[in-house]
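Morning - NAP inputs below, output right after.
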Amino acid sequence: MQPLSGQSFIGFARSQSTGPSQRCVNPATATELPTDFFQATSADVEQACSLAQAAAPVLAALGGKQKAAFLRAIASRIEAATPDLVARATQETALPEARCQGEIGRTIGQLRLFADLVEAGDWIDARIETANPDRKPLPKPDHRSMLRPLGPVAVFCASNFPFAYSVAGGDTASAFAAGCPVIVMAHHAHCGTAEIMGGLVVDAVRASGLPEGTFSMLMGSGRIIGQQLAKHPVLRAIGFTGSRAGGRALMDTAAARAVPIPVYAEMSSVNPVVLLEGALASRGDAIATGLVGSCTLGVGQFCTQPGLVILERTAAAESFVTKLSQLFTEAAEGTMLTAGIHKAYTDGVAARTSHAGVKVLARGPASGQPNRATPALFAADAKTFVADASLQEEIFGPSSLVIWCANAREREQVVTALHGSLTATIHATDAELIANAALIAQLEAIAGRVVVNGFPTGVEVSHAIVHGGPYPSLSDGRTTSVGSNAIYRFTRLVCYQNFPDAALPAELQGSNPLGISRLVNGVRQTGAV
Ligand code: NAP
């Protein structure tokens, strides 16, 4: 592996920035790691955008096979560099080696999923309405439509996923698959990991014979350099994973541009878990064990961490909460990703502890070592919860809030008051599920994924996954940031009217040379027209 230079990638060149600079910190020991990472300059932002603008039409003209080869070239380079990536990421994030290896596997899998998708080609939603010159009173024109890439996309890396939601993560993979150039804003917590990964992507761009503006990666403050990037007129969309404040700031910037652009921000989610009586009576202890595992997995630093537990006060529920409290008390502390995230967790837990309507049910053991988060379980009654929206704010870390409901009516009031989340979970017997269709419909209205008798952490990357939900979990609740449907965020429909066959994209030509599935005069088929 090349030694780290600490400089941004501006196409195939490296920035010559001389500052300001920062060092990454090992959160487990609170010690600085050696390399200085230099903030990209305004000229770097200009150059990256200008290169991306030049690359956009070239990428838009690529066929599915060429895009697939490029995505696979990135994947194979990541595979080969896994030991270097793991070695750096474990130091910068304190995430265990096995977690890093698993996340790299997921990142490679995502790239290959999108490669398979664009190679097959059906995703493009080709539709053909053939002309009818004899139609009365007016002739019918020939209309053929399909999805086209938006153009240059900025991707903001996530602190909590140094691979799967970062430089070559889901946003980048889906934007490349759509045919868009990408400019990545590296996250200050894991710049070295980003630099290694950025080098692999640049190498794949070169090897695939693509223009250098296909990919750039900027180091430095998101609030300064990221904002300049978000305002740049060349940009056509933004992908983001992080805090509600950061995502909202980018949404506001994008909306205030002379030409507003979409922001696909995954921000904050409390992932409510509703527990019904029959499930608690039949397997309350098992639910408590599973739930504490889901709440504390990865030190609670998952966007799908269950931050609310909603139940009616019954004997089975009382004994379940006693068990859950005991498990939270015994749950180990863990190192958080950054000092900032640790402080946000500590502040959030302190605010909840001092809330007049909230009771502390359990705190785990604390060693006092740097950046360690102690699990915390709280309780409030339904009326307190419904009256105070601050109790719905995400506390990013291993904490959860039990909401006691006096009866089913109060539970309904609580569920009705819930803000948007990535997931909503229900534990119930089969009979309860059938009897509570209205409750399930309420959960569906506030979440992108409804989980029955399971736990929300652990996101499967697939064609059917939905990792999205109404605001504030996502800026645009119609989309998903994980899975093959994420590609649609970076596309728009174009209709070609009365084009001669040879001038049409191959996907829409009469002979169907790519053999893809198309909707022809309302009938799905793969044949010629
Ligand atoms: P963050 O503060 O939102 O930062 C994420 C990225 O966005 C960084 O590159 C940051 O740049 C940039 N950014 C922040 N504010 C910005 C603004 N106003 N304009 C442009 N760019 C901006 O998130 P974080 O550092 O990962 O963690 C902070 C908190 O976010 C956590 O404590 C947690 O509450 C929440 N979080 C939630 C999730 C989730 O999945 N729900 C995931 C991660 C974090 P700079 O900081 O370099 O300026």
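Note: The longest strand covers residues 143-149.

O.
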